[in-house]
Every structure is written in C-alpha cells, then in structure tokens.
Design brief:
The strands form three sheets. Strands 1-2-7-4 form a four-stranded mixed sheet. It has a three-stranded antiparallel sheet with strand order 3-9-8. It is globular and about 80 Å long. It is α+β, with helices and mostly antiparallel strands and about 525 residues long. It has helices at about 1-20, 25-30, 45, 55-65, 85-95, 125-135, 140-160, 170-190, 200-210, 215-225, 225-235, 240-260, 265-280, 300-330, 335-350, 355-360, 365-375, 415-420, 460-475; strands at about 70-75, 75-80, 165-170, 380-385, 390, 400-405, 410, 480, 505-510. Bound molecules: protoporphyrin IX containing FE (HEM). Protoporphyrin IX containing FE binds near residues 133, 321, 378, 451 and 456. It is found in: Endoplasmic reticulum membrane; Microsome membrane.
Length: about 525
Amino acid sequence: MGFLVVIILIGVAILIYEEIRKLQYWKKLSVPCTTPLPIFGHMARAICQRKSIPEIHKEMYDKYSNHRYIGYFLFNSPSLMIRDVELVKTICIKDFHCFSAHREFLSKDTDPFWNRILFAKKDREWYDLRKIVAAAFTQSKMKQMYPFIIKCAMRLTSSLPEENKTISIDSYDLFFKFSNDFSLNTVFGIECNSFKDPSNEFYKVAKNAFIVPKLKGLKFFGAAISKSLAKFLNAKFFDDDTKEFYIKVIRDTLEYRKNHNVVRPDLLHLLKEEQKERLQNVPKELDDPSDTYTPPLMTEDDVAVQLVGMLFTSTYTFTNYICNLVYELALHQDIQSRLIAEIDETWRKCDGNLTFDHLTNMKYFDMVCQEGLRLRSPTVFMDRVVTKPYTIPPVLPHEKPLHLKPGQDITIPVYCFSRDEKYFENPEKFDPERFSDENKHKIIPQTCLGFGYGSRSCVGYSLALVETKVLLFFILQRFRFVPTEKTPIPFPLDKINISQFSSRGYWLGLQLREDIPY
Ligand code: HEM
C-alpha cells in the first residue's frame, strides 16, 4: 500500500514537473509572456467567468506595446499572439502557404462531421473545396439570390405590430427567425415562415442546434481553447439528430428537383452545378502537371455537409452581427436618423423598386455596417497554424530570429486591433464617419478583421452584408429601434462566449416612425 502511494506521488510529481516545464516554452524562445498557471495557462479567469477571452487578450496586448508578437497559453498549449499589422499581412497573405490552416477546433475522432466542412479543411483539400464554394458567392450569384432576401425581409416587416406605442422586442429572436427562414431559402430552397408559424419543424431544429444552451456553450468554449478538453467533453458541433435531419432534407430536395426538373438559384443548386463542372474538369484543376495530387471528387454527401456548415454560419454568426449592429443604432439615435434619411431618399429615387445596385450604392449604410463590424464584430480572434517551418526575421532591436515549427498555433487578436488607440481615435465610440470617403484611407485593413483576412477570409461576407442591408432597409422604413429599461447599457460582454455576444440578451424597443414619408 505504502509503495503504491509512493508510485502515485511520483507520478503526480512528474506530471506537475512536465506542466511547469511546458510553461517555459516562450521564455526559451525569448518571447515575452505574462506568467501562466500550470494546466490552465492564461485561461483560468475565463473558466471562472471573471474575464472574457477578448478581455484577457487585451490585457496582454496592451501590456507589451513595444512588441510585434507575444506568447500566451491556451491551457497548456502555447499560442503566438500577433500584435503587428504587417506580420498579420505576412501570415494571412504574403506567406500564407506557411500558415494555411485553422487551429484544429474539434479533432477528427471527436467530430468527423466538423472536419469535413470548409473551415476545418487543410492544405490542398481546403484549396480545392474553397474554389468550389467561393464560386457560389460571386456578385452575379448574389444578384440571383437577391429576390429571396427581399421576400424574407418583407415577411419579417409584415409580422411587426404597427402600434402607436413603443413595444419591447427580443431582437435576437426576431433576427434568428429571419436568418433561419432566409438561410433555409437561400441554402436549400425551402420555404418557411417562422413568424407566422413558430412551431414549424425547421425553426425548432435550428433553435435546438444553433441557439447554444449554457452547457453546450461551455463545451464549445472548452473545445475552442483546448483540443484535449474537446475530446474529454465529447464536444460535437451538431448532434446526430440535427445532422441527420438536415442531410435528409437535402437528399429529399435533390430527389424532388431531379424528378420534377426544378431549377432554383439557391446555394444547393449552385454547389451542385459547381460539383458537375468539377467532375468534368478534374485534370485541368491541377496547377502543376507533374503534381501527383488527385483532387477528391465532391460527392452529394460532401455538398450536404458544406451546406449544413453554411447554414450554421449564416444563421448563428449573422444573427450575432445584426443584433450587435442594431443595438448600437438604438443607442445612437443621431446615426439611426441619418441612416433613415438615406433609406427614405433611396426609396424615393428607386420608385419602390429597390434593386441590388440601389442597395449597394448606399454610402452611409455601408459606413454604418463597416463600423458595426469594427466595434461589435462577432469575431474576437482569428487563428492560424504554421504548416511549413517558418522564421520571423528580427526587425526591432530586442528581437532575435523566431523559428516556428509546423503545428505552432497563432492567434490574431481581432478585438484588440479594433480597440487600439494607435489605429482608432476614441475606439469604444460607435462612429461610422471613420469609413467615410474622407477618412477611410486612414484605416489599415488588418485592423478590421470581422470577416477574417486573406485567402481564408469569409466566403459569405457579401451575402451577409446584403442580407443586413435589405433587412434593415425594410424595417427602418417604418420603425425605429430605441433602448428600453430592459436594454443592457453598456454592452455586457458574455464571458463564456467565444463571440462578442451580450450576456443579458438583446432587448430593445420598436417604435413606429411618425415621419414615414410614403
Ligand atoms: C456577419 C456574418 C459573418 C461573419 C462575421 C463571418 C465571419 C467569418 C470569419 C471571421 C471567418 C474566418 C476567416 C479567417 O480565418 O480569415 C469566416 C469563415 C467562413 N465563413 Fe463567414 N461570417 C459571416 C457570415 C457567413 C455566411 C453568411 C456564410 C455562408 C453562407 C459564411 C461562410 C463562411 C465559410 C464557408 C468560411 C470558411 C472559409 C475558409 O476557411 O476558407 N460566413 N467567416
């Protein structure tokens, strides 16, 4: 018995020693790093919900203002945090081939489904799939989808009660219903009206799958910061029932379309078209004829997996973005009034027929959307992984060459760049003027990373922006958003969310406009 206790004590001592040794990682590379805790690294306060991840990032970012990069620990895994905008450009664009992967959020054995979606793919498989998916998001394809966006936005506005008093709304629920109906429409071509019929099966499944309950949120939080924790928690992006539900919907829709010769310009159709082309053009896809790599064919199942992945992003991230933006509009009535004036003016000019070009030519609207993305982007950090050995050459007097090995995790602190006074005067202020024609040249692109940056940036960004503009156009034609006593002020950053999310919901007042000019 005594012998067993000694063995256990020795085992524990070795484990603790190993953990402490790992924490010397950045010191050995002469990279500055605040003192981490064994096992938890810099994440202890996030776990206790005392500080959110962006706040922890900002503390470190601000502390080492004379450094281009700093070290930190996601639990016991070392990550290199980039503080310098030129280095961000090098990593995401100039030397992208050495940093072409995302962090492995959920490993293949923890969640094989997640690993098949574009965001999780690596190397040539990613490159290949990206070409196919991106082709479904060109400007001309956006124009084809535009009528669907209008239709869904009209449905939302006609569900809003036109009362002569301010009504309190849960804007998250409102926009979630819209984006679910819209995503189903543009992704699968399915007609659904969650405003009229909130008990419809699609809305129920999406709510279960995408409105993340606290426990699942905690699992994702753990998974986002540590691979081993993800495995331990058995964190999966979608549960099996959700996956089967959507895959069946896609199969049935494809079958129906084949049997009834239906053609509809939604993402399902566009990806199927790309898939067909892909099958015919396989040999031409290879850039280098001596390359023996054979691009994998895109099966029907692959199309389905990508669509379910996109359904999630377009519902979850979009809802988060538009809720944050509308929150700021409610708090800044002067900005909302100027936007409403531009909307009224455009409506007059377009004579009731709001085309894609009218919408995309609205300058102030664009400035408002860009500023919403800067200040309240759902994305608080981006990640990359070193895929080929890479040396960051010294530039500052205190630097030495930093040799990075494949597998090294990189963090790009989106939230910190957007709040750095070096780049934005009064950074906490919601100020669309930053993006005016006179001012926008002062903005460094690497400091506004809401949709990511470089070759791996968001493929759906133009869809998300058009969607936001159409929706707000039709709402603000008749209504104003105002704060009520239920609206949390200032913005309460949720501490267990890896997005910029309000911890006390998105309650706002909706007021019928008194000055509707038509
Ligand atoms: C406001 C809404 C959205 C935001 C803030 C957002 C943000 C992002 C970000 C930050 C990335 C990672 C970029 C990087 O690492 O450089 C990303 C990737 C991606 N997004 Fe979005 N996104 C939004 C909407 C959408 C929509 C509507 C779709 C599609 C329907 C979409 C599809 C994707 C895909 C497929 C990727 C992976 C790209 C790749 O790895 O090559 N996103 N998004």
